[in-house]
């Protein structure tokens, strides 16, 4: 009788001990870049009635452009609060586009109101790596 109970008990023990779950986690770090964008760094385009500020960012390479993500935040000069763009901040609509090696901020007045030269801003660019 003991032999009959021993065999199933041995089988159950072997099956339960050999089942282990292995989890591999791959952490892909983000990269944050800060800029102090002066009011004198904006250029006016009369055709679009907008201001543009190109920012050279060599970290935006082909892989970032094609696979990863780029997030942009702006803040007033004291840096207490960052707001994600696109956004309307002090009656100015801010957007951005990026290409290899460069990010361009655009500022345009809301509605029929002209933008006027945008003020000094702190710009935070976050490159979010993707595991494609």
From TrEMBL:
<protein>
    <submittedName>
        <fullName>Uncharacterized protein</fullName>
    </submittedName>
</protein>
<feature type="signal peptide">
    <location>
        <begin position="1"/>
        <end position="18"/>
    </location>
</feature>
<keyword id="KW-0732">Signal</keyword>
């Amino acid at each position: 009788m003991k032999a009959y109970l021993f065999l199933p008990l041995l089988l159950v023990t072997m099956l339960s001990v050999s089942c282990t779950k292995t989890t591999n986690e791959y952490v892909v770090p983000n990269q944050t870049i800060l800029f102090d964008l002066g009011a004198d760094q904006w250029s006016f385009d009369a055709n679009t009635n907008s201001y543009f500020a190109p920012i050279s960012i060599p970290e935006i390479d082909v892989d970032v452009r094609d696979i990863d993500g780029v997030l942009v935040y702006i803040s007033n000069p004291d840096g207490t609060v960052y707001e994600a763009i696109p956004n309307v901040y002090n009656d100015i609509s801010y957007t951005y586009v990026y290409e290899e090696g460069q990010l361009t901020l655009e500022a345009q007045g809301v509605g029929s109101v002209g933008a006027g030269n945008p003020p000094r801003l702190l710009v935070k660019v976050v490159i979010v790596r993707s595991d494609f």
